[in-house]
């Protein structure tokens, strides 16, 4: 294959297979070329990926050597995207009864969802995450997007057990905002003991749901290495029960009467 | 930018932006090159995409001309992937009480989910789909994967209304397998009248859930142009209430006692 064709092939390969370790000889064979040529190809792909803020190719030399694509979005691109999210969310038409915010259009846009996942995955890329955990329903697409860039599976905590998942572990917890007792269930087969977990959800108010997830994950001896929420609501009446998390945007001063709302970048943009 | 770098840039651009119409001058500007060079670049990208069964670049000449990437997985690749799914699912360890099949590991793997979405999107790519609709919970990742390749939004039908979505339309329906009356809800804001809809779900037995969705979508005057299910169960006791759908795999002869099960390609592979 010619260099120009190889570059298109390799770009697609790396973008589709983040974190996947490949040995150079396998490219030499499948692309019918030399190791030196592949090595030059990889330099070109790496340069463009870096320039475009898409991440980089990690090369390991030696006998077990090879290459893998680490999809790390640049901080600049992440912050730019977060600002766009803020601008979109600040529209007062989004205010719903109870001080909630209509976000279904953003959560329903696969491209926006993918960008959100890319931002989280970039932030958590060095934490050796084994699995992304979320709770049904709205966090699911964000969890998949994040997991696809980390190249790990997704496990979904449910609020009701399902016959199609076999035996399961469940806990009860108190929802922070509604003060109601709720149940969370995770199938036994779904998580290995001692796994490094990243929790992803769409929205956090007092943090009751996330605390519930942390407790449930404790039953599996999982290590919660990171918590990512798309939006946190600034709620002065309640004390937050979760203190270590990453939020992309922060919603505050929701004034239903005057149709006003403030949406600012969350703590993602603070901690560098 | 040099050709080699441009090819990496363009490959990424098209893969990230399927169905997006781009005019050549925008590439000429951003890549600082000539129209003739871009045109040659596009030929190269198109050739490799076709050879790898990833789809093709559609060129339109003239004043409003430009290019877009149509992600059509080759039929050969689709059928090969479906066969892999069958092999994975045929493991008797997956049999659960009630004749259900454990599929959470496959549905939890973002890469498998993406491939399933790619197969559906390729099949439905010429139907002018405006939106992908699914019902919570397990169909959600498949719906997003499909929608990302069609470049359209996802709308999620819920079984319980949520305060965070505003006013909604609901219907009651009879679940085919459990014969229970259930509710389905769709927020009013979520779907425009007359939209061309593709329904995606993970599993279909008698088809009650999908019939419920069709009825609910009728309230929005939506046109159901396609129905895609990952797995259909061959259930001889019940007559199927939905007759026009595309299934990737078909599960039959589930024998809990003898731990046996047959999983074969679904009707996707029949209709060419």
Automatic annotation (TrEMBL), chains A, B:
<feature type="domain" description="Phosphoribosyltransferase">
    <location>
        <begin position="109"/>
        <end position="257"/>
    </location>
</feature>
<dbReference type="Pfam" id="PF09182">
    <property type="entry name" value="PuR_N"/>
</dbReference>
<keyword id="KW-0805">Transcription regulation</keyword>
<keyword id="KW-0804">Transcription</keyword>
<dbReference type="InterPro" id="IPR050118">
    <property type="entry name" value="Pur/Pyrimidine_PRTase"/>
</dbReference>
<dbReference type="GO" id="GO:0045982">
    <property type="term" value="P:negative regulation of purine nucleobase metabolic process"/>
</dbReference>
<dbReference type="GO" id="GO:0045892">
    <property type="term" value="P:negative regulation of DNA-templated transcription"/>
</dbReference>
<dbReference type="InterPro" id="IPR036390">
    <property type="entry name" value="WH_DNA-bd_sf"/>
</dbReference>
<dbReference type="InterPro" id="IPR010078">
    <property type="entry name" value="PurR_Bsub"/>
</dbReference>
<dbReference type="InterPro" id="IPR015265">
    <property type="entry name" value="PuR_N"/>
</dbReference>
<comment type="subunit">
    <text>Homodimer.</text>
</comment>
<feature type="domain" description="Bacterial purine repressor N-terminal">
    <location>
        <begin position="2"/>
        <end position="71"/>
    </location>
</feature>
<protein>
    <submittedName>
        <fullName>Pur operon repressor</fullName>
    </submittedName>
</protein>
<dbReference type="InterPro" id="IPR000836">
    <property type="entry name" value="PRTase_dom"/>
</dbReference>
<keyword id="KW-0238">DNA-binding</keyword>
<dbReference type="GO" id="GO:0003677">
    <property type="term" value="F:DNA binding"/>
</dbReference>
<dbReference type="Pfam" id="PF00156">
    <property type="entry name" value="Pribosyltran"/>
</dbReference>
<dbReference type="InterPro" id="IPR029057">
    <property type="entry name" value="PRTase-like"/>
</dbReference>
<comment type="similarity">
    <text>Belongs to the purine/pyrimidine phosphoribosyltransferase family. PurR subfamily.</text>
</comment>
<dbReference type="InterPro" id="IPR036388">
    <property type="entry name" value="WH-like_DNA-bd_sf"/>
</dbReference>
């Amino acid at each position: 294959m010619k260099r120009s064709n190889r570059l298109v092939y390799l770009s697609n390969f790396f973008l589709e297979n983040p974190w996947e370790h490949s040995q150079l000889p396998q490219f030499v064979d499948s692309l019918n070329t030399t190791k030196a040529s592949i090595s030059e190809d990889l330099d070109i792909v790496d340069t463009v990926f870096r320039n475009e803020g898409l991440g980089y190719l990690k090369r390991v030399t030696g006998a077990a050597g090879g290459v893998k694509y680490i999809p790390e979005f640049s901080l600049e691109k992440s912050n730019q995207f977060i600002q766009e999210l803020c601008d979109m969310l600040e529209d007062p038409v989004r205010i719903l009864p109870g001080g909630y915010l209509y976000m279904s259009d953003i959560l329903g846009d696969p491209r926006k969802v993918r960008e959100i996942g890319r931002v989280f995955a970039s932030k958590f890329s060095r934490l050796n995450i084994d699995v992304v955990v979320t709770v049904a329903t709205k966090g699911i697409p964000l969890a998949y997007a994040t997991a696809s860039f980390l190249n790990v599976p997704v496990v979904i905590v449910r609020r009701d057990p399902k016959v199609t998942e076999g035996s399961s572990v469940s806990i009860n917890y108190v929802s922070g905002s509604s003060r109601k007792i709720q149940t969370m269930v995770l199938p036994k087969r779904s998580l290995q003991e001692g796994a490094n977990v990243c929790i992803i959800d769409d929205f956090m108010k007092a943090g009751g749901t996330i605390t519930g997830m942390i407790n449930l994950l404790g039953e599996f001896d999982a290590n919660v290495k990171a918590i990512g929420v798309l939006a946190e609501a600034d709620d002065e009446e309640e004390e937050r029960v979760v203190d270590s998390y990453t939020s992309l945007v922060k919603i505050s001063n929701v004034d239903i009467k005057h149709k006003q709302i403030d949406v600012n970048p969350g703590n993602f943009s603070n901690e560098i």
